[in-house]
Amino acid sequence: MSDLPSAESVAALVAQFERELAAAKSTREAQPIRDRYLxxxxxxxxxxxxxxxxxxPDQRRNIGRYANELKQxxxxxxxxxxxxxxDARPAGAVDVTLxxxxxxxxxxxxxxxxxxxxxxxxxxxxxxxxxxxxAEDDWHCFDALNMPAEHPARDMxxxxxxxxxxxxxSGRADDVRTLLRTxxxxxxxxxxxxxxxxxxxxAPGRVYRRDDLxxxxxxxxxxxxALVVGEGISLADLKGxxxxxxxxxxxxxxxxxxxxxxxxxxxxxxxxxxxxxQCDGAGCAMCKRTGWIELGGCGMVHPAVFEAVGYDPExxxxxxxxxxxxxxxxxxxxxxxxxxxxxNDLRFLExxxx
Length: 354
What we know:
Shape: elongated
Largest sheet: 7 strands, mixed
Number of helices: 11
Structural class: alpha+beta
Strand order of the largest sheet: 1-5-6-10-9-8-7
Strand content: 15-25%
Distance between the termini: 62 Å
Number of strands: 10
Order of helices and strands: HHHHHEEHEEHEEHEEEHEHH
């Protein structure tokens, strides 16, 4: 075979290709043979095509013609081989030599991610996670939490009452009204009825209120509330717990402050503010130039709540707090519209770490 392409070298290479192809035991073994002759880089045909540019002008035409003849002959034999291999497979058979398809993996919802992170932080602190029914009676949801019948939170504009009653276990002789719980504090009441102090629990779950759906409100949303009861529990324990949580959830440099507030089931009561971790309290768009971000409510458990569940308020003290899981997600991920969490838009949901 001469150094330059010729009719003889074309015939010899085609015959050699046929022998190598016949010796291949599968299409997987045959593919590298085909690439050695026809591949775009480093193949025999590609090297012949490169000779065209460097060959003397009177030889370029013949070299190009022989290179094309070799290419067409190899392609024809490869096509016949592939057709024969495909026809030889049984109907419906799977070609195990084909590369596998990577399955599409789903993503956890951002609210599920945040709830799991919250539970992980508090279980490391020694809290137990407790859940309960979403349909409740008004004694566990209101009366036991020191909310009398005339309290605004019990107004029909805030609470979703159910037409079908459920059996109550408050021990009252009058009828029990049934509702969709407005907070997960009812879980705490039921837990205290069946457990004696010391108690350290968090109660996550969905709650319902008569709110219009807008940028920051939803008629159904998720909360996580905490309750600690024991001897000698103080307001300092409450602040220290919330500070440890905030530094794990948001930033190791965050600070916590309490603003006086009122909740019927805690006394004293406070609103929880966190120093803005974006600007370190200097003031930015995230904290609305105040340096602080509101998180939720907290306080020391009211003695009337202990009396309702049979605890001695002279012996035991405790603290409780509650925050919205959507609120934490909005702060953590800088989402401006709460409705994005419920619209099932994959373009939004796939942005969050799984």
